[in-house]
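DM from R.C. (forwarded with permission)

"hey, sorry to bug you on a friday — could you get me a structure for this? deadline for the figure draft is monday and I only need the backbone to look sensible"
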Amino acid sequence: MKKHILLIEDEAGLVMTLSDRLRSEGYSVDTAGDGESGLQRALQRDFDLIILDIMLPLRSGLDVCRDLRQRNKQTPVMMLTARGQLVDKVVGLKIGADDYLTKPFEMIELLARVEALLRRAPAGSAAEAPAGEIYRFGNISVDLRQSRVLRGDEVIDLSALEFRLLRYLSNIAA
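My reply, with the result:
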């Protein structure tokens, strides 16, 4: 059975190159050129892997990854981005990415990472996330593992930067 990959990338040349190569390796590939449409595709069907750029139009890749995790989508996510500073990598991984590869990259390394993520992925990647550590402040709940903040039963939307700051503050308080 073919593994299904969603590629969320706005550089047309890279989309064509990656899609062609992944298909030649036997994968089925869907694409999205911006964060908003990528998020919608990822929520509409189950994929075996999502390859996600960070700097996207309409919604950043960090926000897409965080929103997927808030909705308990456990599809493996590989960040593929030009942002290669250590802080960018750490934020990407803490927000819910499973791997982080910087551009430019060697195709053989990307393919090896894809294979590794698919090997480790649970059957039915959309399974619910295990419960993580939850902090409570009155009627506010902060679930750092799922990158989710609730006021009562209402989800509070935070940007990736706001959530990063919240995570930082919770580490100071600990």
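R.C.: lifesaver. The CA atoms of residues 138 and 151 lie 9 Å apart.
me: no worries. DSSP finds six helices and nine strands in the chain.
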